[in-house]
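Reader question, answered in our methods column.
A reader sent in the components of a multi-part assembly and asked whether the whole thing could be modeled at once rather than chain by chain. We filled in our standard form and ran it. Here is what they sent:
COMPLEX SIZE: two components
ENTRIES:
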Amino acid sequence: MTAHNANAAAEIRALIDDRAKAIRAKDVEGSTAGYAPDVLLFDVVSPLRYVGRDAVRKRLAEWFSSFEGPLGFEQRDLGIRAQHDVAFVHSLNRVTATTIDGTKLDMWWRATVCWRRTGGTWRITHEHASVPFDAASGHASLGLKP
Amino acid sequence: MTAHNANAAAEIRALIDDRAKAIRAKDVEGSTAGYAPDVLLFDVVSPLRYVGRDAVRKRLAEWFSSFEGPLGFEQRDLGIRAQHDVAFVHSLNRVTATTIDGTKLDMWWRATVCWRRTGGTWRITHEHASVPFDAASGHASLGLKP
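And here is the structure of the entire assembly that came back:
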């Protein structure tokens, strides 16, 4: 990896850390500042896709408001591949929280986030977040741990 | 996009088309030729992840052998972002087939495929395939259509 590309990876890493802090603070603006206006999101729950930053903001605001009290957010096995103005990142993410109806949530999911740098600014143009499902039962596998 | 990058996108496009043909032919070797030896796969069904081309080959061979007769495979809304030696691709994929127990399958899923070129050869280093789930029921949403 050249110094230029190592630098790109470090920039992406800093953006990921900032975003994680914003998620823990349930800060919708901070969590979605990095999205491109025309971002394509494949989210953990239905529908099939969301298109555009405004739709993603709305979805995230709903998600944050479904929790009471602190929101734990962690990322592990982070892989970053950045070259020039394109980057992709994969990780396993975990949320620990209590929903407003009192249910304890502790869930891991898979995340792939694709970035593009335009005019010197990195933006997320595509994100894919999911849990697999159990082929026998058809249920989402919400209890998996890495 | 520079000519170099347009060319990279065209190369990726050709590899995607070749792979689609191999999938329709239930050709395990052809379908997995593009994977890097250490590929990380987040698949539609559990477990959380597969690591390595051998694991992906085994998984795909099982999937192909679960069908009787022709396997329909289609990709739409293909987005390709390629620059120098890094590329990512997203699409909505569809399979139409009959399982060995006679069940008709017609399913769409979301796919994100991340590529890296090493020594002149493009390889898939990461793939993420999923369906979302319905938050109310906990069931995988297998009937969604774009």
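What stands out: Chain A has one domain: 3-130. The beta strands of chain A are 35-42, 50-51, 67-83, 86-99, 104-118, 121-130.
Send us your own complexes using the same form.
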